[in-house]
Design a protein that fits this description.
The chain is of the alpha/beta class and about 350 residues long. It has helices at about 15-30, 40-45, 80-90, 105-115, 140-160, 175-185, 200-210, 255-265, 285-305, 325-330, 335-345, and strands at about 5-10, 35, 50, 95-100, 120-125, 165-170, 190, 215-220, 225-230, 235, 270-275, 310-315, 320-325. Helix content is about 40%, strand content about 20%. The longest helix is centred in the middle third of the chain and has 22 residues, at about 140-160. The structure holds 6-O-phosphono-beta-D-fructofuranose.
Length: about 350
């Protein structure tokens, strides 16, 4: 019998609760106890935990968000934070920890494992889908579905008013959501951080489209796209104020508005902007994400049982496998050129 801790870190994401449920159900089946660590790594810094019984994990499968809370706390950026984590882990009587998160949360897990042998297993979460060593993270499919539906709806106004509708989607470092929802929704131009087309090129595509009689367009832009100009100049658009979080990230948002202004000035086409924001992370996971999250959760519980710490449950093809945590966080998984080519075939 083990005492298994679970934490969810970073941005909330559809499917987190489904993972919690699966880890718990499989662990209960083995006679283990399950403890929820509240609010990500902050719960281990502050010794804030809560027992999870079959009652707490009932009804979680379709529920968005995370019942144990999340945060962007980085124990390596809190004075004495790492010592607190190690002490509170031991004092809570935990034998293992399942950390569900993206590059930041799992980056901390990988370090705590390699530097302090913390018995931790990872589960890949992020709507951004930018984690390496796994084909897909859970939450991504739901975000793409939400964005695709929004693009479909925006087509109506675009067509009725002869407008360019600019849709800003999430994706801090990578354009996975923009490319996938843009392909699915029939976007006319897509701008992403890792393969940025210039503002001039984007306008050229829209003009080409108008010349062939299409007087409305849909432009999808990732929040992390830097306004890029033919001159080579680049400009990141971020929100004012709070500086960076404990992982060094600025708060993005606003590039859609600036891009729309540029398009209007350069082409004369009337533009409107929709920022999908946290709507993309909200609500119930798609069936695909529920299934993926469930499979990840079962695998994580099995890895705990087998004592295979320092690993992460990953999807490779149709199989759920174990990969080293260090591989998952070594570098970001960017959109490969062949995916962007699919999107580009429909530009203009
Ligand atoms: O990392 C996932 C993500 O959704 C990014 O796409 C986005 O930049 C960020 O989280 C927003 O975070 P917050 O909820 O802290 O504003």
């Amino acid at each position: 019998m083990k005492r298994v801790g679970i934490l969810t870190g970073g941005g909330d994401c559809p499917g987190l609760n489904a993972v919690i449920r699966a880890v718990a159900r499989r662990s209960f089946g083995r006679g283990s106890e399950v403890v929820g660590v509240r609010n990500g790594w902050r719960g281990l810094v502050d010794a804030d935990t809560t027992a999870l019984t079959i009652r707490e994990v009932s009804g979680l499968l379709p529920r968005g968000g995370t019942v144990i809370g999340t945060s962007r706390t980085n124990p390596y950026k809190v004075e004495g934070g790492v010592d607190d984590v190690l002490r509170n882990f031991a004092e809570a009587g935990l034998d293992a920890l399942v950390a569900i998160g993206g590059e930041d949360t799992l980056g901390v897990a990988a370090r705590l494992f390699s530097e302090h042998e913390l018995p931790v297993v990872g589960v890949p979460k992020t709507i951004d889908n930018d984690l390496s060593a796994t084909d897909y993270t859970f939450g991504f499919d739901t975000a793409v579905a939400i964005c695709t539906e929004a693009i479909d709806r925006l087509h109506t106004t675009a067509e009725s008013h002869n407008r360019v509708m600019v849709v800003e989607v999430m994706g801090r470092h990578t354009g996975w959501i923009a490319v996938m929802s843009g392909i699915a929704g029939g976007a006319d131009v897509i701008l992403i951080p890792e393969q940025p087309i210039s503002v001039e090129e984007a306008c050229g595509e829209l003009q080409k489209r108008h010349e062939r009689g299409k007087d409305f367009s849909i432009v999808v832009v990732s929040e992390g796209y830097e306004l890029t100009y033919a001159s080579g100049e680049k400009r990141q658009v971020a929100q004012e104020a709070p500086g960076t979080d404990q992982f060094g990230h600025v708060r993005l948002g606003g590039v859609g508005e600036q891009l729309a202004r540029e398009i209007e000035e350069r082409t004369g086409f009337e533009c409107r902007v929709t920022v999908l924001g946290h709507v993309q992370r909200g609500g119930s996971p798609t069936p695909r994400d529920r299934v993926l999250a469930t499979r990840y959760g079962l695998k994580a519980a099995d890895l705990v049982e087998e004592g295979r710490f320092g690993t992460m449950a990953a999807l490779q093809g149709d199989d759920i496998v174990a990969v080293p945590l260090a591989d998952a966080v070594a570098e970001l998984k960017t959109v490969p050129p062949q995916w962007f080519e699919v999107a580009k075939a429909f530009f203009g």
